[in-house]
Amino acid sequence: MSDTDNRPHPGETLRDDVLPALDLTVTEAARPLGVTRAVLSRVLNGCAAISPDMALRLEAWLGTKQGDRAEYWLSQQLAYDVWQARQKPRPAIARLAVK
């Protein structure tokens, strides 16, 4: 994936892949995660990040396979956050000159 590709928010993976595979609604998924429907909906719609707390909740709920670990969700969130930051203008920063 290049820097110009639109990296999806990890909540989209939950919304588009995980919940349909489990045949669950947002309300049904929020209950075992111990969060409100509104909280989960904000994550699923990319309005809120997957926090370390949410990642641990997902890990406990989904199991411990590679794609279900807290680190997986956090790495996806980090990749999304870095991609978002790269899309914004930044001031020119001179590289450190090593002597």
Description:
This is Addiction module antidote protein, HigA family. Keywords: DNA-binding. 58% of the residues lie in helices and 0% in strands. It has 99 residues and is mostly helical. The protein has one domain: Orthogonal Bundle (434 Repressor (Amino-terminal Domain)), CATH 1.10.260.40.
Q: What's the quick description here?
A:
Helices cover 58% and strands 0% of the residues. It is mainly α and 99 residues long.
Question: Which helices and strands appear, and what pairs or packs with what?
Answer:
Layout: H1 10-22, H2 26-33, H3 37-44, H4 52-62, H5 70-86
CATH class, anyone? Mainly Alpha
Gyration radius (Cα, Å) is 16 Å
Mean pLDDT: 93
Question: Which spans of ≥5 residues are poorly predicted at pLDDT below 50?
Answer: none
Descriptive tags:
elongated, single chain, 0% strand, 434 Repressor (Amino-terminal Domain), mainly alpha
